[in-house]
């Protein structure tokens, strides 16, 4: 423990506030958004160093959406959601809606048992548990195949750590009777699904997504299809909105899983205006002119392909907001369509349906329809109804009907010493198994967003947004008490709260949390023994 922090003796007013062991990161590298110090540029690499220097780039470059944008639709949002710790999502809306309407939904996340579970993993435990409490089917899995293949962990080490993750998950409130716990290596259904998904993924794709090359071993690749299967596993019995809470480093996996889910579908539903296919931009043009032109203005009250072509040709390119090449190609298609009427319709493409499924679809479509070799056009069915029908037919005919899985992303915690929080740097993180006194000491030794001197701190206020200790309050120590979190923030930034007292309070809370958590871990030993998850792998190499 260090006592050399001037702010810890309130008025002394000299030297640094950063205390610690002199390994504090330069504050200038810390980001106001709570990102990690000295982080590299944004690269989402599931097996690389997981730090993100600029969360905004994740929105711009990777298409992750801001969580705030769906927050209002979430019933009793968790404090991690309210405080922006969960900062991003992909397609979370269907999950939020399902929770709101008490419809089926699922949550699943996985843990690589490579070390002790720490307070960063607690975020994910909490996310799973919260979704379970909101009514979702909950799954927690031990990614032992991945730990063995991608990290070279022995099965003995894996067993030890797996047990620790599971105990913490249960101690924090996961209900194993309602939810399911499994390890990848012991789940036969999962392996079968992985095998099936593997038939739809190939090496070039893995190369592009994960940077795999000729040296990458095959088991590592197998662990990827296994994770794809993990992500879709909750939908094996029936399709349902499923959320995968993870750090943003896992986003490549989420994107691939969303892709594969789509590739497994029997039918693809699109909108069309005539018998031929249009690209998205072309379709938008035709849609616009379909709205704009009055059929009565044409010969037999019918708007035909040639009419749209003519109208398009009369419109200056600058008004159309597309490239000349798009215009060219849509004109060619429309001219070839000639006198064919333009009529909006919903199209079902046969992607991989069985013959029976295709026939069943044709049979079930109400109203006017036209059947082609590998698609059906329905004229009295809107897009949403068509999607629903396609899924129903698929499921009735032995398909999965997967919904694209959703994800939510939490911020990485800043390490206590300022850099990134890493399981390989003990002082940077607090393990859920740390002796409570060590937890206390680590917080006392943490770097802070305090000013050089107490005087300056009082005058300018502390930099709570750049402070690992404030993060501890916001992410963990304040629990559900928003008022408390806000008070700490306000008192800090107004200069009232000095780092010494603040750390003392945080350190005590951390000690209490660890004591309590570890007691609960002992209590749930029995619960764990009662679950059917395998705790000792028969594998030994
Ligand atoms: N790859 C994840 C990690 O590195 C672990 C994992 C395996 C996982 N399967 C998953 C996470 C499914 C979320 C969903 O920690």
UniProtKB/TrEMBL annotation:
Keywords: Aminoacyl-tRNA synthetase, ATP-binding, Coiled coil, Cytoplasm, Ligase, Nucleotide-binding, Protein biosynthesis
Coiled coil: 503-534
Xref: InterPro entries: aa-tRNA-synth_Ic, Rossmann-like_a/b/a_fold, Trp-tRNA-ligase, Tryptophan-tRNA-ligase_arc
Enzyme class name: ligase
Motif annotated as 'KMSKS' region, chain positions: 420-424
Positions of short motif 'HIGH' region: 113-121
Compositionally biased intervals (Acidic residues): 1-12
GO biological process: tryptophanyl-tRNA aminoacylation
Residues passing through the membrane, by range: none
One GO CC term, this protein: cytoplasm
Keyword Lipid biosynthesis appears in the UniProt entry: no
SUPFAM superfamilies referenced in this protein's UniProt entry, alphabetically: Nucleotidylyl transferase
Catalytic activity: tRNA(Trp) + L-tryptophan + ATP = L-tryptophyl-tRNA(Trp) + AMP + diphosphate + H(+)
EC number: 6.1.1.2
Region feature (Disordered): 1-45
Principal subcellular localization: cytoplasm
Listed PANTHER family: TRYPTOPHAN--TRNA LIGASE (PTHR10055:SF5), TRYPTOPHANYL-TRNA SYNTHETASE (PTHR10055)
Function: Catalyzes the attachment of tryptophan to tRNA(Trp).
Similarity comment: Belongs to the class-I aminoacyl-tRNA synthetase family.
Protein name per the record: Tryptophan--tRNA ligase
Origin species: Haloterrigena salina JCM 13891
Gene: trpS
